[in-house]
Design brief:
The chain has 209 residues and is an alpha+beta fold. It is 56% helix and 10% strand. It folds into two domains: 95 residues; 99 residues. Helix 1 packs antiparallel against helix 2, helix 1 runs parallel beside helix 3 and helix 2 runs antiparallel to helix 3.
């Protein structure tokens, strides 16, 4: 009688361990799939597969302890979690550069808008004085500030936010050219953008990367 009780206790212990390994594999596999787009998901997926294999080995040696279905499910989910990280990497490799390019284009549009404002203000200045404003720096974007160098008679609507470009009149008097340079900008994502220029006819060039 005592011997049978000992056998029953040993079987219960084995079953508990097996069920624990299979359940752990299944739970980790589920969490791995949910977080599969992040590195933690693939790590949990690997652990889920390990626990699943351990559970299957135990089930193979002692079929009566069960848990095989949970182990297989855990292994499958773990594999899916690992695969998801590769899809996430491919998506990032495609999406991030496109997002960065779109962000740059939006910032360059900001400079182009400022170009038109200064060009129009320079035209008004010319009508009043017979000459265009002299060469000067209107804004230096090397530091994050919105200081603007107001020149008498040149009325320009200032940017509402911190300008990302350094704005300067490069030609004045009888000719006019206005340049927006990003090479020394506090926003270093723009350092590879070529200078944006507007000439006396209002033609804008540059701003490529």
């Amino acid at each position: 009688m005592d011997e049978q009780q000992n056998i029953s206790k040993e079987t219960a212990v084995v079953q508990t361990k097996k069920n624990s390994a299979a359940t752990t594999s299944l739970v980790l596999g589920i969490i791995g799939v949910v977080t599969g787009l992040f590195l933690i998901g693939s790590i949990l997926g690997i652990i889920a597969i390990i626990f699943g294999i351990i559970a299957l080995v135990r089930a193979g040696k002692s079929p009566e302890i069960g848990g095989k279905g949970k182990a297989i499910a855990g292994i499958i989910l773990g594999a899916i979690a690992i695969i998801l990280i590769f899809f996430a990497a491919i998506f990032s490799a495609i999406a991030i550069p496109r997002f960065m390019a779109a962000s740059k284009k939006a910032k360059i549009s900001e400079a182009r808008l400022m170009m038109k404002k200064v060009w129009e203000a320079a035209g008004t200045y010319y009508e009043a004085n017979g000459l265009y404003p002299p060469p000067m720096i209107l804004h230096n974007a090397s530091t994050k500030n919105n200081d603007w160098n107001d020149y008498p008679g040149l009325i320009v609507e200032h940017p509402t936010k911190y300008p990302r470009f350094s704005y300067k009149i490069t030609k004045g008097g009888t000719d006019f050219e206005f340049t927006a340079s990003s090479q020394n900008s506090w926003d270093n994502s723009l350092w590879d953008v070529s200078p944006v220029k507007i000439n006396i006819e209002g033609v804008i060039t540059g701003g490529t990367f």
